[in-house]
Amino acid sequence: MTHNTDDRRLAVIVLAAGQGTRMKSSLPKVLHRIGGRTLVGHVLDHAQSLQPEKVVVVVRHERDLVETAVRDAAPEAVVVDQDEVPGTGRAVEVALEALPGFAGDVLVLSADVPLLEVDTIEQLLDAHRAAAAAATLLSAHLDDATGYGRVIRDADGEVARIVEQKDATPDEASVTEINAGVYVFQTTELRSRLTQVGTANAQGEKYLTDVIGLLRESSLTVAAAAAPSAETALGVNDRVQLSEAARVLNARTVRRWQLEGATILDPATTWIDVTATLAPDVTVLPNTHILRATTVGEGATIGPDTSLVDCEVGEGAVVTRADATLAVIGAGANVGPFAYLRPGTYLGDKGKIGTFVETKNSTIGERSKVPHLSYIGDTTIGRGVNLGAGAITANYDDLTKHRTEIGDEVHTGSHNVFVAPVRIGDGAKTGAGAVVRKDVPAGALALSVAPQRNVEGWVEKNRPGTGAADAAAKARSAQKADDGAQEEDR
């Protein structure tokens, strides 16, 4: 008996109910992140790429947290709850209740297998349909298969059943072909066999894998397709496997951008999320992280030692040894080294945020420069502005944040403090050390002038016995001697 191969409809079930105790985390396993997405987010992305009729996600542990993540990644997915009956078989059984009347193929994916590529899934579907199989599983070969279910084949080399690690005999445990936990089933056959699956096993669970043996007992075809790479088909069960999966995914992502025309000098120290985008001729230098929804324009240079999170970098910009989050860096702009761009920073085309500068919620106009040693918060800066070293916009009065507005073509002296709210008019200038508390009209020069006063002998009188007092006394004596010698010469 075979199923109707003309029915090419597809539904996807994603198993995301497990707690993942080996992660030793308060966060559900499937919500841990690699490459800018949660584990379940990667799997849902793969599922949606197949354009199925419906995606059903089974949840249980921390179900509200997991459901929120599912809704963010796949708003159209149907979320169902696993009941008190444990096991993957029961999880699939509840998911099928959300597919009434569906009779096509159902693909079962595990939410903790993030590295499986869409091409591999499509090959699995093709193999399933070509064999007119009732079920097709994805397998992989491991030198050390400890912890994984084994694929047991009969004398003819056909899949006979799957045995879980805890239920395996010594001979079965020596098998190196493992079940990757990814399946395609003909839905009608799956429904009927799940009703026959019990919980008489070492873990007292209703195993989905038992369906394979039941299908074979009914003389139905069960096929297996080997994953092209074992590491892409393995699940994430602990923090060690999480970091390894992150490494594999990152290497894949870096290679993809290299092939798209980006120069990445040291892939081993460069981390790029799958959600980030690089244009051709981008150069990425070592120890650089390009994360989340960051986009980097053509010809830009990023790094070394740079972290960009949800940033937009324009064409030809240079960002060196900088940390930026939710910032926009214009075309031809220059950032760093040692700059800190906090959320809400907008740097215009050909602008500059230089060494040891921190910015927040500020717009810095085209060709404007904040070269060094400055804090710019809640500020609007016009075009062609140059702020001297040590500029500070004092935006907080202990109660409220206030804005500073600096017009076009303003040039300021070193060590200026702009006490917000304050406006500096177009073309104005400020003197060194100015504390600007009042608006400055366009074209005006703002000064904070105080006469310098020297109090002679202050150190010797107020700090007697110190090194400074001794040095001052010696210098004073030397000066008196010098003055006396000059007087004699006269």
Descriptive notes:
It is a single chain. The protein has 490 residues and is α/β, with parallel strands linked by helices. It has two domains: 10-233, Spore Coat Polysaccharide Biosynthesis Protein SpsA, Chain A (Alpha-Beta Complex); 239-446, Hexapeptide repeat proteins (UDP N-Acetylglucosamine Acyltransferase, domain 1). The strands form seven sheets. Strands 12, 13, 15, 16, 18, 19, 21, 22, 24, 25, 27 and 29 form a twelve-stranded parallel beta sheet that branches. Strands 14-17-20-23-26-28-30-32-34 form a nine-stranded parallel beta sheet, with no helix packed on it. The chain has a seven-stranded mixed beta sheet with strand order 5-4-1-6-10-7-11, sandwiched between helices.
- Strand content of the residues, in percent? 25-35%
* Architecture (CATH level 2) name of the largest domain: Alpha-Beta Complex
Shape: elongated
Instruction: Give Rg in angstroms.
Output: 34 Å
Give a quick precis of the structure.
The chain is an alpha/beta fold.
List the defining traits of the structure above:
24% helix, disordered N terminus, alpha/beta, twelve-stranded parallel sheet, 490 residues, UDP N-Acetylglucosamine Acyltransferase, domain 1, Spore Coat Polysaccharide Biosynthesis Protein SpsA, Chain A
What does the secondary structure layout of this molecule look like, with pairings?
Layout: E1 10-16, E2 33-34, E3 37-38, H1 39-49, E4 54-59, H2 63-73, E5 78-81, H3 88-96, E6 105-110, H4 118-130, E7 135-141, E8 150-153, E9 159-163, H5 170-173, E10 177-186, H6 187-194, H7 210-217, E11 222-226, H8 230-233, H9 239-259, E12 263-264, E13 270-272, E14 277-278, E15 283-284, E16 288-291, E17 295-296, E18 301-302, E19 306-309, E20 312-313, E21 318-319, E22 322-325, E23 328-329, E24 334-335, E25 339-341, E26 346-347, E27 352-360, E28 363-364, E29 369-377, E30 379-381, E31 392-394, E32 404-406, E33 417-419, E34 422-424, E35 429-430, E36 435-436, E37 445-446, H10 458-462, H11 467-489
Parallel strand pairs: 1-4, 1-6, 4-5, 7-11, 12-15, 13-16, 14-17, 15-18, 16-19, 17-20, 18-21, 19-22, 20-23, 21-24, 22-25, 23-26, 24-27, 25-27, 26-28, 27-29, 28-30, 30-32, 31-33, 32-34, 33-36, 35-37
Antiparallel strand pairs: 2-3, 6-10, 7-10, 8-9
Helix pairs in contact: 1-2, 6-7
